Amino acid sequence: MKKLKRSSRLVEMTQYLLAHPHTLISLTAFAERYQSAKSSISEDLAIIKEVFEEEGIGQLHTLAGAAGGVKFKPMMPKETSLDIIKQVCETLQQPDRVLPGGYLYMTDMLGQPELLADVGKMFATAFADRPIDLIMTVETKGISLAYATAACMNIPVVIVRRDNKVTEGSAVSINYVSGSTKRIQTMSLARRALKEQSRVLIIDDFMKVGGTVQGMIDLLHEFNATVAGVGVFVESGAIESEERLLQDYVSLAKLTAIDLKTKQAEVVPGNYFST
């Protein structure tokens, strides 16, 4: 790269950090990339760090020593997250979103890039202090949320299938009980998709009783993997608490009441905002 003016270097360096989250970048690499002295690079990083933190973009961590450098960690202030989720709640309360069985239509929202980026950053912030190797979700609607979160954390995604795909080779399959329908269902994961003893963050779009998430947890046990956390976009609170199969999870929104006759739903911010 040709030598840049400082203003241009600051812009390019900022973009580089945003595009490489959770990646340790040495001062030497930056110095060579921009053909500048390390002292100048350090001054630039100090400016970027200040702006990132003041504007709620994230944190820039500096690691000292010969193997040190800087690492950008995307973060979203809880106040900013709450404003976004309140808008989400208002949208989900629209009468035409109420579906039979006490569900809400959310597919269109899960296809909005800006919202997905925000939700991914919320989950990345919620689980920022936990060591995580990869993200797991089950097909299909949770996939976009999982990838949005993975993009912020710079880790891979594995997708649990309802049935085994021949193109994925041998797989581990388990039966689980759907929490809402009480039916026996099957989920599977390719043996090559997950290393043993991995630390896994489970992401899902909607949780009613928690049967699907519990199924993924049981599947992880077959790989000797550890559940590092569970994040759900919307949880249903319109059920008896003793029916819930899962207690340790983070939700961004909560369906607290629904009337199928009047098509009225009440959606409020989830437990992430009560801690």
UniProtKB/TrEMBL annotation:
Q: Which UniProt keywords apply?
A: DNA-binding, Transcription, Transcription regulation
- Pfam families this protein is in? Pribosyltran (PF00156), PuR_N (PF09182)
Encoding gene per record: purR_2
* Name of this chain's protein: Pur operon repressor
Listed under GO biological process in this entry are:
negative regulation of DNA-templated transcription; negative regulation of purine nucleobase metabolic process
Q: Which family does the record claim for this protein? A: Belongs to the purine/pyrimidine phosphoribosyltransferase family. PurR subfamily.
What does the subunit section of this Swiss-Prot or TrEMBL entry state? Homodimer.
Keyword Transcription regulation in annotation: yes
UniProt KW Transcription keyword: yes
**Residue span, Bacterial purine repressor N-terminal domain:** 5-74
InterPro entries for the chain: PRTase-like, PRTase_dom, Pur/Pyrimidine_PRTase, PuR_N, PurR_Bsub, WH-like_DNA-bd_sf, WH_DNA-bd_sf
Domain named Phosphoribosyltransferase: residues = 110-241
Q: Which organism is it from?
A: Paenibacillus montaniterrae
Q: Which GO terms describe its molecular function?
A: DNA binding
